[in-house]
Amino acid sequence: MGRGALLQEALEELIPDVYNEALESEKIDAIAQPEFDLKSTEPLIVSAKVPVRPQVDLKDYQSLRAPKPTAEVSAEQVQETLTNIRRRYATLEPVDRAAQWNDHIRADVTVSVDGQAEPHEEEDAEFALREGGVVSLPGFSDRLIGLERGGPYDIEFELPEDFGGSELAGKKATYRVTIHEVKGEILPELDDEFAQSLDESFEHAAALEERVRSDLREELERRTSAQYQDETVDLLVATAEIDYPEVLVEREIDRQIDRESNHASHTQEGLDRWLEAIGSTLDDVRDGLRETADLAVRRALALGELVLAEKIEIADSDVQTEVDRMVTQLTGEDGDETRANMARQLFDTEDSRDSIRNQLVTQRALARIEEICSQADEGAESATAGRRGSRRRRGAR
What we know:
Blueprint: H1 3-26, E1 35-41, E2 44-49, E3 55-57, E4 64-65, H2 75-88, E5 91-94, E6 104-113, E7 120-128, H3 140-144, E8 150-158, E9 172-186, H4 192-198, H5 205-239, E10 241-245, H6 246-260, H7 268-278, H8 282-309, H9 316-331, H10 337-347, H11 350-373, E11 381-382, E12 390-394
Parallel strand pairs: 4-11, 10-12
Antiparallel strand pairs: 1-2, 3-10, 5-9, 6-7, 6-9, 8-9
Helix pairs in contact: 2-5, 4-5, 5-8, 5-11, 6-8, 8-11, 9-10, 9-11
């Protein structure tokens, strides 16, 4: 055995003990494996770089404030939804006039694009002309308004830069349209009879309108709540000082790639196939995910520190209540007992319960920062004032 091999063997025996002693004496809280660099053999000098546990200072997070938006449904939104419901039951009647908004067109359409050998043809295509809607290309419906049965009509377009792939970007397209039929919509009257035809529980049209308003309000409240939740977490992150190693971002990128590739990244072959399918390289994918991964890391670290600061804990009974809720969701209120037991076994593992506990911790942390930010105190820091926090990423120590 040569001198180099002997030295390597000695280092492998010696370095772990020396490294662990250094961590203890310097009180370094390592969170990943170190990178060793042999500086000298005589005397023996080895340096180690190791990612350390993040440091998070939430500052005066109790003073954070963000006005909570209200979810108000307008009369116009209700009427638009009611009109869309009526359109599902509309009858179509041929008309002898030029096309108008909300008419239906039956036509032969041929599309020729500069540089393409063969045009795309579609016979007897039928589509509705909705204001603000998109048929084939933005603005195409507008060009059909005012046209009567007959043709052919030639309509020219400059294709958008992002249309149909780079080979078509910016090229001229010519639509040749022959209109066979223009049909007008006849909507059912919004009366008690129509409401009852949808659901016998609607005794009159006003009940249908109230259900629509209630459903719209519920959906708007859900979206508004999600947006406000994001805003409060962003405010918590923006005003905090967070010092963290780059390895956490790399791990988050790995996790996002695993999710987006549907776990294909578990093997090199699967990763290669996925990259080929999306037409990208691994470096480009990682670069594209870096910003969102970095934000995800900062959000997780800030919320984790909030959990500690607020002493948020989840009791075993809370976990069991959530398990019961999930079982009921899977099997129904009157679900089969055998299916319910199978569902319980699915959740009755240490990993499953730990995952549920972590989800509940996150939910309570989110609820707590919302509660803090939605208070109405004078002199508190608002979402629009003083985003003074700092964030730093460390490589390693």
